[in-house]
Request: fold
Amino acid sequence: MSEEFFSILLVDDHKVLANGIAALLEKHPPFSVVGIAHNGHEALTYLDSQKIDLVITDINMPDMNGIELLTEIRKSYNDIKVM
Reply:
């Protein structure tokens, strides 16, 4: 019987916080953090190249904030959940 994993992309401009959240999630299967982006533009690059089930994003970030990222995700990736 295969175990299903949920691929997660973390998006936060604070590297220490993002790395800490990733470390916590990795301890709890079925979660698998497949990437960390530091702004919305980097996140969209990940979404173009990998299968992502869930994006956990900060709201306040430089270049493209979390609300703008959510808007872009809804345009092209309706099946991805965002938190």
In short: The first helix runs from residue 15 to 26. The longest strand covers residues 31-37. Helices lie at 15-26, 40-49, 66-76.
